[in-house]
Amino acid sequence: MEVRILDPRIHVWGLPDYQTAGSAAIDLFACLDSATDITPQAPAVLISAGIALSFGDFSFAGLILPRSGQGHKRGLVLGNSTGLIDPDYTGEVMISTWNRNPPGSDPITIQPGERIAQMIFVPVLRPRFTVVDAFSRTTARAAGGFGSTGA
Questions:
Q1: dUTPase-like domain: from which residue to which, for each copy (predicted)?
Q2: Does the N-terminal or the C-terminal CB of the chain have fewer CB atoms within 10 Å?
């Protein structure tokens, strides 16, 4: 995978990387010019990760996820729940940040260079669809969902 460095501070902070031998995702930095407050329940704020990627292969994609500590301890989550970086997208990687805390709570202050999200790479399956009047195989769960199997 090729990576373009769009923010020169990445050279100082280090490329997004796996923090432990067992980490599944790389951490992404907040490439901000100055500290930024994310107000509780306000619209999501886009923050640059300072990089662009070229996958070179359409068989996998990147998913941007919140960092668990940021979400659990501070209330900083993604404004779009999960960000998808399609393998044919080569533009700037952006992180949609949202403060899930209740109105009246303190804003979350994000510092330049802070690790605020993570990206995991996943395989992409692209099935071909065949339109049918009835399925060739059925299961006992043809209908239901949304809690149909109990709590």
A1: 14-150
A2: C
